[in-house]
Design a protein that fits this description.
binds 2-acetamido-2-deoxy-beta-D-glucopyranose, 12-stranded mixed β-sheet, Pectate Lyase C-like, Pectin_lyase_fold/virulence, Glyco_hydro_28, mainly beta, 31 strands, signal, 19-stranded parallel β-sheet
Length: 365
């Protein structure tokens, strides 16, 4: 009798404990900011419902290896003048996916037309994942300033993202970069739509980056900006980057590569732009300048960050026809440019004639 009673008791205890830790629907749904850290530290399958992140706080998700996060709700961030980022994701082999959710940075409450040099605005979404992580169909709206930064990440793929800062076009959005990449390697971004007011993609540092089917509008184009760091070496190095099958429209530039002569030495090697379609480009279709200093183009170019093996194929389309428009501008420092191979580069409707102090193979300036 006692034996049977014991068995029943054990059964009841197991049943009760299974019910209270009901994995998917109770403890593993995040519906308030307060529950984030306990859910993230104990669940492999997490659902994010709608909630608000208090001003000045960070939505930090230090995910368990192999965790899956599904975003179902609208996650908003209260206004606060701090540097952010508002969201920071860590983890290895994670899957971050969307099911109707949105991250809304409430940009309109910050925009003053001055971006990074006006009032302090938080960066939005930082990714620091590794080990074959994927982020699918994520939607970010109204970035206060830079939208996504991928930093100290590796082996991570972003697919089907939407970054929509179009409300900032007339609303004072500025420096709202789409994807910024540094200190990372093995990053793929595909099928992304970016509507913003600065670079669609900006690469500062890193290697083995692949971008396919990006559709960029309103911003500054597909960019590399290298040499900002005062130290020399890897901190100012970009290697093996491909952009393929991308569209850039109604933007300041199509392709933009700038090197900073007031920083350290570095290198840009093995960069390919293939099948890039441009339309309504206001300033430069292709703009490559080795003379940035103090944040702007200035004076004579310097070859401290040489650009070697730059391939362009099928870069075609139209400028806006406005008075600043120039299809191709190339300004290389001494020994700053070598082994550039361009074919089928054809951009029409420019008002100004091209300007090149270096001529790529296969291209007539
Ligand atoms: C959790 O919710 C989903 C959908 O709402 C449902 O299909 C599933 O059976 C629930 N699981 C548990 C353990 O209650
Ligand atoms: C390109 O991306 C868009 C937007 O995500 C998507 O609708 C389209 O199917 C993609 N095309 C290809 C060929 O992957
Ligand atoms: C260049 O990067 C791609 C990933 O984008 C990778 O598959 C390829 O192996 C890399 N090539 C070299 C030579 O490292």
């Amino acid at each position: 009798m006692a034996f049977i009673f014991n068995k029943i008791l054990v059964f009841v205890i197991i049943a009760v404990s299974t019910a209270t830790s009901s994995p998917l629907n109770d403890s593993c749904t995040i519906s308030s900011y307060d529950s984030v850290s306990s859910v993230v530290s104990s669940c492999w399958s997490i659902v994010m419902e709608s909630f608000t992140v208090p001003g000045g706080q960070q939505l930090t998700m230090n995910l368990m290896t192999g965790a899956t996060v599904t975003v179902k709700g609208t996650i908003t961030f209260e206004h606060n003048e701090w540097t952010g980022p508002l969201v920071q994701i860590y983890g290895s082999r994670i899957t971050f996916q969307n099911a109707g959710g949105v991250f809304d940075g409430q940009g309109a409450s910050y925009w003053d037309g001055k971006g990074g040099s006006g009032s302090t605005k938080p960066k939005f979404f930082r990714i620091k994942t590794t080990g074959g992580s994927t982020f699918n169909d994520i939607v970010l709206k109204n970035c206060p300033v830079q939208c996504v930064s991928i930093s100290s990440a590796s082996d991570t793929t972003l697919k089907g993202w939407t970054l929509d800062v179009s409300a900032g076009d007339k609303g004072g959005g500025h420096n709202t970069d789409g994807f910024d990449l540094s200190s990372s390697h093995g990053i793929t971004i595909e099928n992304a739509v970016v509507k913003n007011q600065d670079d669609c993609v900006a690469i500062n540092q890193g290697y083995n980056y692949y971008f396919r089917n990006m559709t960029c509008s309103g911003g500054h184009g597909l960019s590399l900006s290298v040499g900002l760091n005062k130290n020399s070496g890897d901190v100012n190095t970009v290697r093996n980057v491909t952009f393929t099958d991308c569209v850039v429209k109604d933007s300041m530039n199509g392709i933009h590569i700038k090197t900073h002569k007031d920083g350290g030495d570095g290198a840009i090697t093995d960069v390919t732009y293939n099948n890039i379609q441009l339309s309504g480009i206001v300033n430069y279709g292709i703009n490559i300048q080795e003379n940035y200093a103090n944040g702007g183009s200035s004076g004579d170019p310097v070859g401290n960050v040489p650009i070697t093996n730059l391939q362009l194929s099928s870069v075609t389309g139209t400028m806006s026809g406005g008075k600043k428009s120039m299809a191709v501008y190339i300004l290389c420092g001494t020994n700053g440019c070598s082994n550039w191979n361009w074919w089928d580069v054809s951009i029409t409707h420019a008002k100004k004639t091209n300007s090149c102090n270096f001529t790529p193979n296969g291209f007539t300036c």
